[in-house]
Specification:
- The complex is a heterodimer of chains A (231) and B (285).
- Chain A contains 5 helices and 13 strands.
- Chain A is α+β, with helices and mostly antiparallel strands and 231 residues long.
- In chain A, strands 1, 6, 7, 8, 9 and 10 form a 6-stranded antiparallel beta sheet that branches. Chain A has a 5-stranded antiparallel beta sheet with strand order 11-2-3-12-13, covered by helices on one side. In chain A, strands 4-5 form a two-stranded antiparallel ribbon.
- Chain B has 6 helices and 13 strands.
- In chain B, the strands form 3 sheets. In chain B, strands 1, 6, 7, 8, 9 and 10 form a 6-stranded antiparallel beta sheet that branches. A 5-stranded antiparallel beta sheet of chain B has the order 11-2-3-12-13, with helices on one face.
- Chain B starts with 9 loop residues before the first helix and ends in a 19-residue tail after the last strand.
- At the A-B interface, strand 5 and helix 1 of A face helix 4, helix 5 and helix 6 of B.
- Chain B: It holds the Pfam family Proteasome.
- Chain B: Belongs to the peptidase T1B family.
- Chain B: Keywords: Cytoplasm, Hydrolase, Nucleus, Protease, Proteasome, Threonine protease.
- Chain B: It is found in: Cytoplasm; Nucleus.
């Protein structure tokens, strides 16, 4: 097993617009080859108060891109004198992704709310294309969700409907994709602000052939267990 | 140097040789970017600055041709960190390997970054030493400049930008921990420049053994003694189950305003046999 393999976020990331804002969702697994390096990572990163991004692909590349874009957006906000729009944030990400396409390996979903356009989602996959979409999915787990979204997505959902859709979708992808797992994190952005939610894996709905989560025997026996080593 | 150029007329080729000799001399002195007269070749790498990956390509080509790479000192390693109720505890084993041989039975893997920040390093020993020393100096200058205690995120950003710039060729996997005005922090930094922020972390070849211990026994709000005991167990797990880790356990406890560096806190591998007759090595052997 190669522990020096570059960190990649196997990942399932989702961004969905609803009537009044956007909901971003992601799993929490970061893998190095076959080892889970971080089972509780936060793939939804803040760029500004009203714009967040979901990161997938190489962990290092996506972290660096988000750091650069946050820095540029900060300057832009100061120069502009008002909060940056989601479109500007998405285009900054696109410029970095496209101009360095030979060296970067990252798929990003930009989502946020601004007063001009309301809630918007932009998908920026590997090559640096920018696509404004009512919903976007990305990462290795997204392969399992295309059909699901074709059937389940509808215009003009409420905030709770949209969040439930996102949680269900990430949970389905986690069930089928080995590179996605852990917990489901969601971020809801609208005119009132930002809300972060957390859904631990044992609280998610069970799907086809999934077993009930069971407390590890270690928890049950730990009270009486002997010390493994004499220290 | 010898005759370069393709046997064109005598005058021309002699001039070309001279030009190339001068160009080579300049390259040795590493001065300005060199323009070689022959068509198609442009500036040498120095023109645009930045790390030159040409040697990396050459190394890969040599490896493909079957050249055995020179063995270098790696810290096989188990390094861990955890956050307890008052701060951060870092732990490391003390074995440094050179291929299959133990080169150093008692090396120090917990490096000083700032009075309130320490960093454990796994991977190539030279890389971890160099990168932590460099960023430690940088942090000190920053402290003079800002007249404030260093923050862990500062060290984190400096380390991650450095490692990202070298695209994973600086083989340093680090566990960075410290306590600053914003509270206790623990981060892992991977050779490619990605970072994670965690309540407990393990790195190195023994990371799986140590992580197994942490996953079963870690809980929030550990006391200092419980934390030190848990870190010792995790490192011992690495020492006894991983071939790349061994020897002793080093611990570093960092709390607000105070740090304790417990070098060789545990010695679970004492030397058990020493010849009673003693050794007589005559001089100059």
């Amino acid at each position: 097993m190669d522990l020096n393999a570059p960190h990649s976020m196997g990942t399932t990331i989702i961004g969905v617009t609803y009537d009044g804002g956007v909901v971003l969702g992601a799993d929490s697994r970061t893998s190095t080859g076959m080892y889970v390096a971080n089972r509780a990572s936060d793939k939804i990163t803040q760029l500004t108060d009203n714009v967040y991004i979901c990161r997938s692909g190489s962990a290092a590349d996506s972290q660096i891109v988000s750091d650069y874009v946050r820095y540029f957006l900060h300057q832009h906000t100061i120069q502009l004198g008002q909060p940056a729009t989601v479109k500007v944030a998405a285009n900054l990400v696109r410029l970095l992704s496209y101009n360095n396409k030979n060296m970067l390996q990252t798929g990003i979903i930009v989502g946020g709310w601004d007063k001009y356009e309301g809630g918007k989602i932009y998908g920026i996959p590997l090559g640096g294309t920018i696509l404004e979409q009512p919903f976007a999915i990305g990462g290795s787990g997204s392969s399992y969700l295309y059909g699901f979204f074709d059937q389940a997505w509808k215009e003009g959902m409420s905030k709770d409907e949209a969040e439930q859709l996102v949680v269900k979708a990430v949970s389905l992808a986690i069930a089928r994709d080995g590179a996605s797992g852990g917990v489901v994190r969601t971020v809801i952005i609208n005119s009132d602000g930002v809300t972060r939610n957390f859904y631990p894996s044992d609280k998610l709905q069970l799907w086809h052939e999934e077993l009930e989560p069971q407390n590890s025997l270690l928890d049950i026996l730990s009270a009486a267990s002997p010390e493994p080593m004499n220290i | 140097m010898g005759m370069k150029g393709n046997g064109s007329n005598h005058e021309c080729s002699r001039e070309r040789v001279k030009g190339e000799e001068e160009a080579a001399a300049e390259l040795l002195l590493c001065r300005e970017p060199i323009r070689i007269m022959s068509k198609g070749e442009v500036d040498y790498v120095h023109a645009r600055g930045g790390f030159s990956f040409d040697s990396c390509r050459r190394n890969e080509m040599l490896l493909n041709k079957g050249l055995k790479p020179s063995s270098f000192l790696k810290t096989g390693t188990t390094i861990v960190g955890l956050i307890f109720q008052d701060g951060v505890i870092l732990g490391a084993d003390t074995r440094a390997t050179e291929g299959p041989i133990v080169a150093d039975k008692n090396c120090e893997k917990i490096h000083y970054m700032a009075p309130n920040i320490y960093c454990c390093g796994a991977g190539t020993a030279a890389d971890t030493e160099a990168v932590t020393d460099t960023i430690s100096s940088h942090l000190k200058l920053h402290r003079y400049h800002t007249a404030r205690e260093s923050r862990v995120v500062t060290a984190l950003t400096l380390l991650k930008s450095h490692l990202f710039r070298y695209q994973g060729h600086v083989s340093a996997a680090l566990v960075l921990g410290g306590v600053d005005v914003t509270g206790p922090h623990l981060h892992t930094i991977y050779p490619h420049g990605s970072t994670d922020s965690l309540p407990f972390a393990t790195m190195g070849s023994g990371s799986l053994a140590a992580m197994a211990v942490f996953e079963s026994k870690y809980h929030e709000g550990l006391s200092r003694d419980e934390g030190v005991k848990l870190v010792c167990e995790a490192i011992c797990s690495g020492i006894f189950n991983d071939l790349g880790s061994g020897s002793n356990v080093d611990i570093c406890v960092i709390t607000k305003g105070q740090k304790e560096y417990l070098r060789n806190h545990l010695l679970p591998n004492p030397r058990t046999y020493i010849s009673s007759k003693g050794y007589s090595f005559s001089k100059k052997t």
